[in-house]
Amino acid sequence: MKRFFVGFAVVSLLLAGVVSYFANSNPDGLDHVTEVHGIAEHAEESPLSGSLFADYAVGGDDRFTGVAGILGVVVTLVLAGGLFWLLRKRTPQEK
Amino acid sequence: MSETIAMHMSDGLLNAPTSLLFVVVAVVGVGVALAKARGDLDDRTAPMAGLVAAFVFATQMLNFPVLPGVSGHLLGGALAAILVGPWVGALCVTIVLVLQALLFADGGVTALGANVTNMALIGTAVGYLVAVSLRRFARRGRAGIAAVAFVSALVNTVVASGGFVLEYAIGGQGGVAFGTVAGAVLGVHVLIGIGEGLITAATVSAVTAVRPDLVYLLRGTEQKLELRA
Q1: N or C: which end of chain A has fewer CB within 10 A?
Q2: Where along chain A do its domains lie?
Q3: pLDDT tens-digit map of B151-161
Q4: B residues 70-99 near A, CB within 8 Å?
């Protein structure tokens, strides 16, 4: 059980920390369509676009995408895992 | 070179009332999911669900090419629903989207309601409904569940992108004709859906190989067997 969970976490960390450098940097389908049809002209920058980890970089330096990715995986795991752990049914079960 | 990895709807594409409308839709939907999720979470599935959310976050970073100059990425609704159920799955994708918007400035803040509605609510619900309707094939081994995962994820991507088409029709900026937006958005998301289908099939198949007991879609069968044992 533990081995599977650790393995699953390691896979996510590797994807976000290493494989993310090989991600395609072209706009995604939605961005592409909004750009082609002029809808994107109305897009506003996120009010958080100046924040430290904006655009999965660190201080605007996308050489650190992997660092931002690992941070994201850890924060997601802690927040989601914590929320689900608090929400869970607490029936005392013997294994 | 600072290529931005913007992946979700930005602020400003929808007018303010429409953005607000979908904030309300998202809050109601997530509230229902929160209330229902409890029944699907226990000491075993809670950590699994946290890991699924982290995996969706990681995989959403991995844009893959779909056309020259156009990429796509996983949305994750079908993946999460098959592994941890629709209610918990919707919460997994919601947490990812909120974190992306707040920590990584990916996707707008006022657009968060629409993004959550499309990817976390519509995508997860549709992906799950397709998966459940094909569940008898999913019980026929790994190839079966991989095929079900592929189809569920493909449909999840296309219908979730239809959420944007709907929102744009209600209150989009720029006045582009409905048919134009619908054709362009749905068309490219069929291609993205194929990528989403392949990733979802590979992931669900891998989990099924080692821990079939942790696959929500397969749970019904297994519990009956356990009760009789």
Answers
A1: C
A2: 2-94
A3: 999 999 999 99
A4: 70-73, 88, 91-92, 95-96, 99
